């Protein structure tokens, strides 16, 4: 194990995860449990039988058959990020599918995200369905999480996206959801202390009850039980992750999108949202010591898309621009309708975590074990 001089953390000898993840542990070879988990639980199920493309073709045929005679045969949410953008290209041009393409506008779209969504939609001659979240409700929801002191401030955005996705699928009677999640760039999971479950309604409601100030009559709430059980097993809605069935290399996808669609890359994963750029780039590492790049880079290291030395070199620099962070801080405060002093107060307040509020973590953990035992979810998820 090596010590990270900047943060005085012990760092894995194989990837760049370190003891800023409080539950990390190392084996006798100084390799962390994230790396061992990848070898034991992810890799065998990701590239296990050599027939991935045949399996994908079979799924595509089922999607087309189920959607025959309907306006859409699947649904796809686009954020403007590389995963969803490349998946949209594949769905239309390579798979010949007819997706309902939708976007959730939570009030924080960057100009770059808008550009990337538009160039994809225009060149593919598609219609874009946009759901605009009530800003007063979103603002109050986000402020409630700031006031709670927890690190997972992105839940209001993430929950809206997930809930709207399933609502659109149910409304349009679409049985297949195309999801851009993938092992290639996301095989290392975020520690739960960094980013908690975005669908734990007990947790969400407790924070809203304590810190929310308005009723949220239009915000699209949805519990994990609704989309994991009711919609999946009663309504027959299935989530497909096509990028897990093909060779998916992030830089190759970016180069392709740039050339074919005039798509523009972001400085970091998830930075298509201006709020997430501030939150992951500045708030998490500076307030909590949680640098999400360590998770993202470690995934790329394990899948051979980045060297450990390259990752360590990039981690020497902050994820945010020190020359402009004060302006960005003031922008976030103004957008939320508070003073910069109030936002700074939340930054300096006592740190809280998911366990400081009501939550369903134990139920989520039991549910994951049951799904694994039944063979419904083959890849075991790190439950900490």
Structure description:
The protein is built from 16 helices and 7 strands. It is an alpha/beta fold and 384 residues long. It has one domain: Rossmann fold, CATH 3.40.50. A 5-stranded parallel sheet has the order 5-4-3-6-7, sandwiched between helices. Helix 3 packs across helix 10 (250-261) and helix 5 (135-148) packs across helix 8. The radius of gyration is 21 Å and the shape is globular. Mean pLDDT is 91; it is low at 3-7.
What is this structure's SSE topology?
Layout: E1 2-4, E2 9-11, H1 33-46, H2 52-66, E3 74-77, H3 82-94, E4 99-105, H4 111-123, E5 128-132, H5 135-148, H6 155-171, E6 176-178, H7 183-186, H8 201-211, H9 224-234, E7 238-240, H10 250-261, H11 274-288, H12 292-302, H13 308-315, H14 325-335, H15 340-348, H16 361-373
Parallel strand pairs: 3-4, 3-6, 4-5, 6-7
Antiparallel strand pairs: 1-2
Helix pairs in contact: 3-10, 5-8
